[in-house]
Design goal:
With 160 residues, the protein is mainly alpha-helical. It is built from 5 helices and 2 strands; from the N terminus they run ααααββα.
Length: 160
């Protein structure tokens, strides 16, 4: 039991990132699925963009508070973090959008569809699942090593 506790402490950041990454992915997929149903399959890139905005807002707050424990809410620091967070997410969003276009339009995933537990699983959704793995890994590295990186010898001050 002591060994498990030590592992949980050692990997707390990674564990919380995975938990909130899964929740962010759920937010993204749910928003995408709902918006895609409203706008129609032909506007899947727009549906993805709207879902992305919703998911990024959710991810910034959860990553700041619970994953990387960036305590300061000083406007200057929040603006810096938020800009870097959005910039990194725009990069991974570009990869996701390009990947969706590649899978759906070029490789023809859009023609595939099946029903699972009463929910229609489209080619677009299958492509999103594949790309989500790549995006989660990229986003972790951006957040850990750039956006919320703890500076050696420099403590984040509540009033910074």
């Amino acid at each position: 039991m002591k060994k498990i506790k030590e592992l949980l402490i050692k990997y707390k950041e990674l564990i919380t990132y995975v938990i909130f990454g899964v929740l962010t992915t759920v937010v993204n997929f749910a928003a995408f699925w709902i918006i895609d149903r409203i706008l129609g399959d032909s506007l899947y890139l727009i549906s993805n963009a709207i879902a992305w905005v919703i998911a990024v807002a959710f991810a910034y707050v959860t990553n700041k508070i619970w994953v990387f424990e960036s305590k300061s809410w000083a406007p200057k620091l929040v603006l810096k973090e938020a800009c870097e967070f959005v910039a990194a997410r725009l990069f991974s969003f570009g990869i996701e959008e390009g990947g969706l276009y590649l899978f759906v339009t070029i490789m023809g995933f859009g023609k595939y569809s099946f029903t699972l537990l009463g929910i229609e699983i489209t080619g677009q959704l299958i492509a999103k699942v594949i790309l989500a793995v790549v995006v989660v890994i990229l986003n972790y590295f951006f957040s850990k090593f750039i956006i919320f990186a703890k500076k050696k010898g420099k403590k984040q001050d509540e009033n910074a």
